[in-house]
Design a protein that fits this description.
The protein has 149 residues and is of the alpha/beta class. It has 2 helices and 8 strands, in the order βββαβββαββ.
Length: 149
């Protein structure tokens, strides 16, 4: 699985005819899955992100996790994280997992965030065209890939 993590002061996702999903201080996680990903990848990634120390402490050092700051997480499914742009000018998305498989893995990811103590987890709309608003704080942006963990 692959994730782009952004430390935010605010994040939201909206689609027509649905109430928006919003968070304040915390993380926006753009997340995608590939064919070989398993539930273990979802568990590993969720735990890594829950405890990732990217919030500043009193000495302005990144020593605090989203759990430490009692932040929220907005999970946004994004198959385009597996875009292959090596050939031609149009990305190929053949490495992205099928929607039903990706949805199941992202559901596991969200459950693990909750079980690790993240109290507020909001999520984007799977398979929908979303308008995502991110107020990146820092900016701080981290890319994680379970193939490299």
């Amino acid at each position: 699985m692959r994730a782009v993590i952004q430390r935010v002061r605010y994040g939201s996702v909206t689609v027509p005819d649905q109430p928006p999903q919003m968070i304040g201080n915390g993380l926006v996680v753009l997340i995608g899955a590939t064919h070989s990903d398993t539930e273990n990848d979802a568990i590993l990634l969720a735990r890594k992100i829950a405890f990732l120390r990217i919030f500043e402490d009193d000495a302005a050092k990144m020593n605090r996790s989203v759990l430490d700051v009692q932040g929220a997480v907005l999970v946004v499914p994004q198959f385009t994280l597996y875009a292959d742009c090596r050939h031609g000018r149009r990305p190929s998305f053949t490495e992205a997992a099928a929607p039903e498989r990706a949805r199941a893995l992202i559901d596991v990811f969200i459950k693990v965030l909750h079980s690790e103590g993240v109290e507020h987890v909001a999520n984007g709309f799977f398979g929908e065209h979303m308008l995502v608003e991110i107020h990146n704080d820092g900016p701080v942006t981290i890319v994680l890939d379970t193939a490299l963990l």
